[in-house]
Design a protein that fits this description.
The strands form two sheets. The protein has a four-stranded antiparallel beta sheet. The chain has a four-stranded antiparallel beta sheet with strand order 2-7-4-5. It has eight helices and eight strands, in the order ααββββββαββααααα. The chain is an alpha+beta fold. The longest helix is centred in the C-terminal third of the chain and has 24 residues. It is elongated and about 55 Å long. It folds into two domains: 154 residues, Jelly Rolls (Sandwich), CATH 2.60.120.10; 52 residues.
């Protein structure tokens, strides 16, 4: 877990503060609070950030890298979400309720992050009521992303699932290993490989 012997520097905070200001402009006092109460953390590819069943008491901002969440069904992993740089990640239900996590969260690449604790985030809301606007907008984005995942799950044809995935997550298509994309879409790796092959052939024929 993060080394709380040092907080992030203003230079390290640039991308995080840019993301926060995107949701709603913040004061210098809020910027200083975030810097003072946030810590750097790095995790190697394949390592677990959060284990199923443990209480998640931190929220993470991805500076560089890729993260996925998954659940276990017997020996099978089912990917529930995937995200990359400039996004906030946490085990949302576990974090909000301070209850055991439903998912595992894993690094797909060597990943550099900025971390804030649940307690420090709650204090941020209390000390700076305007920051609650940002909290609301972040949760609205979480809800939107969950709606997209639910929609993909309800599409019956594998080809349509992948087409919609490309529409909303094109930046992941050639970055994330296919087995995780296939798992996220609820189709087999063989099916996804076939679909991608057909798309490639079709694109060549149009040239």
């Amino acid at each position: 877990m993060p080394n709380k012997s040092r907080h992030i520097t203003p230079a390290e905070a640039v991308s995080l503060l840019k993301m926060v200001n995107y949701f709603h402009p913040i004061s210098k006092a809020i910027e200083n609070y975030i810097i003072k109460h946030s810590y750097p953390y790095s995790i190697k590819r394949g390592c677990l950030l959060i284990n199923h069943g443990e209480v998640c008491d931190k929220i993470f901002f991805i500076k560089k890298g890729a993260i996925r969440a998954f659940i276990k069904e017997g020996k099978k992993d089912i990917t529930t979400w995937i995200t990359v740089e400039n996004e906030l990640v946490t085990a949302i239900t576990s974090f909000n309720l301070q209850a055991p996590a439903l998912e595992n969260i894993q690094a797909l690449e060597d990943t550099d992050m900025i971390v804030m604790s649940f307690e420090d985030l709650q204090n941020l809301y209390q000390q700076f009521p305007e920051y609650n606007i940002i909290g609301r907008k972040v949760y609205e984005k979480y809800y939107f992303d969950a709606e997209i995942r639910a929609l993909i799950a309800r599409i019956s044809k594998a080809e349509k699932k992948y087409e919609y995935f490309l529409k909303v997550h094109s930046h992941l298509a050639n970055r994330v290993p296919l087995k995780y994309i296939a798992s996220y879409l609820g189709i087999s790796l063989e099916t996804l490989s076939r679909i991608r092959g057909q798309m490639l052939i079709s694109a060549k024929n149009k040239v």
